[in-house]
Amino acid sequence: MTGGSSSRSGRIRRLRRIADRERAPERGDRWTVLINHAATSLTALAAVAALLFAGISSLQAQDELSNRRQELDIAREGQVTERFTAAVAQLGDTSPDVRLGGVYALERIMRDSPKDQRSIVGVLSAFIRTHCGRATSDRQGLRDAVAVTAAATAVAERRPHRDDEELVNWSGCRLTDIAVEGAYLSFSDLSGVTMSHTDLYSGDLSSSDLSRAVLDGVGFDGVNFADSVLAGVDLTKSHPPEAPNVVVFLSDIEFPQCDLTRTNFSRLGLSHIDFRHADLTDANLSHTEVAPESRDPFFVGRTSFEGATMANTNLDGADLREAHGLTVDQLITAHFTPATKLPAHLASPDITRWATTKPWAPSSP
């Protein structure tokens, strides 16, 4: 009994040792797997840490770059401020030459710093109003006129999208020798201004006030006057700068919805002029000529009166045969005489019988 038990116990121990030897590789495989998993996890953690470090470094670099840009912007602003202050100081100098240098300095700043354009236009306009009346025939007066002309040219040549409207106020100023292609003077106060020997061809003077302006030798070829006020303006002295002795109103002018009351157009050539919905009450168009196509180098188109108000408009002797948009109602309210040459559709006896021989006079204000 005892011997049999010992024998069985021995076999059990041997079987256990065999089983342990067989399980040993399995335990080793599990440890290997665990170690490999741990290594993979550590590698992933290291990669994440590297990415975090790179991200932090990138953010720090961006912050440093942003700070550097801010420092450069501040430095640049400081330089612009110094240049602006120095230029304004030059405008107040007693020497006309120094003032002229200040004008050119402000013009340069206006090109370099768009956001300062509004302030500079205001300063230059104030300078023009202050000095425009000093122009005389002596040497000092001529130098003053040069600086004023330079300032006006700089304002007229500015880029319109950089500032607000209604900035320019040259009311009552005397301006001369300005030549700017595409001049931008929209929404400007030019009431009572005196302009001479000036060319604003293809310019934009829409929504501006030119009432009571005196225009002597001013070229307006292609200018847009839409919604402007030219009440009381005498345009009979306007002419091409290259032909100072020729009295002619240039072509391609836009006057839609303008206030042209008491404006003097007498004895001018009107070619391709847009008077649509303009107020020509008491305007003087006597002996004007609406020129046909290709009649003259200055006459390159036709003129439209569509919707224009023509109450007491003086048409005595005017040649309107090429006019567009002229109606019976407009003609009857206007002042026309037997000397008025009408378009074919208005030249019937039923209409011409309304012609008057009485002298024209503007209505009482």
From TrEMBL:
It comes from the Bacteria. It holds the Pfam family Pentapeptide. InterPro entries: 5peptide_repeat. Keywords: Repeat. The keyword Repeat applies. This is Sli2. It comes from Streptomyces lincolnensis.
